[in-house]
Design goal:
Shape: globular
Number of helices: 13
Helix content: 25-40%
Number of strands: 18
CATH topology of one domain: Alkaline Phosphatase, subunit A
Radius of gyration: 21 Å
Strand order of the largest sheet: 9-8-5-4-10-1-11-12-2-13
Length: 504
């Protein structure tokens, strides 16, 4: 069983079972099921030793390739932008805070994104769940960006039962506001939609289904029957968070069963990922990793991830090769037989299929976590949400952090930990670590700063950050647009507003 020791990070690699090659009896283009869980903590899945029950996730992970050196971005939107484009956030303008409901910015239209590339080679493409890549004009919404269908919401989070964000409805079917679902738990609605899509799918066509869960993002809400399973957790919010992850696991079981019943399963490639680390204030935990969502410490950017599918040449193994969320774009585009788009700038990701499937060394030896330094811009105020994450880069074993908000380690409440309050989080934000160097392979929990021992490595990694910085585009954060609120009031929903009000 894949149970990891949360203190020493030691694991026993399961022996590789005899290779099962992706034969011609399987489809030449795999169906792709991309499962993205929102704000999932590193220590909040069963195969990492959690007391939260995730049997479906654990089974898929155990049967596939677990990615134990896999990284995403520190926020929801930067990760989703990198996933869709294969570019670092500094190259899409998404290096900073999440896109909010009043912000007139989204994923740059000049980038071809993953569903658009897959459609070029015959895929049917569907998004169920969270978009969070802009909706200020209709052309920035999912069905104008390569998805044949969309059932979900635009913003960073909403009430799981009423489907409202800041008082207005945020649930859509295509571009149409989805009314009449009040009181139904969002994740359950998503499963129903996925089951419908799979049942109606023409099996002769390749399928790309992007299931972007809202769970376990705040607000912390779950149906009562799931809460009852975690009565042993005394912290009420943590108990609810556990129930929310239980819902995700059940949903994944139901979704995969739908693929089996349709006869698609043996030709389906499953990718499982979190979009960033857990937020301990909302009861997502990353122990023994340092830090949390919003930070460039390992707890903010090291993600739970695995790949499952009959086309894998090896199964039941743990991969420790360096992989980043930008790598999915070129990997999946190449698997599908599409052509990579290098405009308006080259892809930052690598094709890591052979690394995952066959165990060949990763082509990635360097990883830019992010560059996001404080800046003064008209109309912007420094608030709790204006969280500048600083810069961090990893080359080989070594990771350099520069001007990052400090962060500590949080053990889960059911094992004696205490969740932080907002004042504690704020204090860490304003306590800046100007420079630190860690050997992540030897010290994955970032406890021993070795910058004083290796000045040459510090100098080299600082140079690499500055080289990347030369290629950065300006951050897309802009002042809020009051017209968004005016249109939301009129429609009682967060619809696209620039088209509606003819704003320039």
């Amino acid at each position: 069983m894949f149970l990891f020791n949360n203190v020493t990070f030691t694991t026993t690699v399961v022996s590789i079972i005899p290779c099962i090659f992706w034969t011609k009896s399987l489809a030449s283009q795999p169906h792709i099921l991309l499962l993205l869980v929102d704000d999932l903590g590193w220590s909040d899945v069963g195969y990492h030793g959690s007391q939260i029950k995730t049997p479906n996730v654990d089974r898929l992970a155990r049967e596939g390739v677990i990615l134990e050196n896999y990284y995403v971005q520190q926020y929801c939107t930067p990760t989703r932008g990198s996933l869709m484009t294969g570019r670092y956030p500094i190259h899409t303008g998404l290096q900073h805070r999440a896109i909010l409901s009043l912000t007139p910015f989204g994923l740059p239209l000049e980038f071809s994104i993953l569903p658009e590339k897959l459609k070029e080679v015959g895929y049917k493409t569907h998004l169920v769940g969270k978009w969070h890549l802009g909706h200020y004009t209709s052309v920035s919404t999912p069905t104008h960006r390569g998805f044949d269908s969309f059932f979900g919401f635009y913003n960073y989070g909403h009430d799981h039962f009423n489907h409202t964000h800041d008082g207005f409805l945020d649930l859509f079917e295509g571009e149409k506001v989805a009314r009449g679902y009040k009181g139904q738990y969002t994740s359950h609605l998503y499963v129903q939609e996925v089951e419908r899509i799979v049942e109606e799918h023409n099996s002769s066509k390749p399928l790309f289904l992007y299931m972007a869960f809202e769970n376990v993002h705040d607000p912390i809400q779950a149906p009562e029957k799931y809460l009852n399973k975690y009565s042993f957790i005394k912290d009420r919010d943590r108990r609810t968070y556990a129930a929310m992850m239980d819902v995700v696991d059940e949903a994944i079981g139901n979704i995969t069963q739908a693929f089996r019943e349709k006869g698609l399963w043996n030709d389906t490639l499953v990718i499982f990922s979190s979009d960033n680390g857990g937020d301990p204030f909302y009861r997502g935990f990353n122990y023994p990793l340092r830090g949390y969502k919003k930070t460039l410490w390992e707890g903010g950017v090291k993600a739970c991830g695995f790949v499952h599918g009959q086309m894998l040449k090896r199964k039941g193994v743990i991969s420790r090769d360096l992989i980043h969320v930008t790598d999915w774009y070129p990997t999946l585009v190449n698997l599908a037989g599409a052509t990579l788009d290098s405009n308006p700038m080259p892809v930052d990701g690598f094709d890591v299929w052979e690394t995952i499937s066959s165990g060949t060394p990763s082509p990635r030896t360097e990883l830019l976590h992010n560059i996001d330094f404080p800046e003064k811009r008209p109309g912007l105020l420094l608030t709790y949400d204006t969280w500048y994450s600083g810069a961090a880069i990893r080359v080989g074993d070594m990771k350099l952090l520069m001007h990052v908000p400090n962060a500590t380690w949080y053990q889960v409440p059911e094992e004696g930990g205490i969740a932080p309050d907002m004042e504690e989080i704020w204090d860490q934000k304003t306590n800046i670590v100007e420079l630190a160097l860690y050997n992540i392979t030897a010290d994955p929990t970032e406890r021993y700063d070795v910058s004083h021992k290796y000045p040459n490595i510090v100098r080299h990694l600082k140079d690499r950050i500055h080289e990347h910085w030369k290629t950065a585009v300006p951050p897309g954060i802009v002042p809020d647009d009051i017209m968004a609120l005016a249109v939301a009031i009129k429609n009682k929903a967060w619809v696209s507003w620039r088209d509606t009000c003819n704003a320039k």
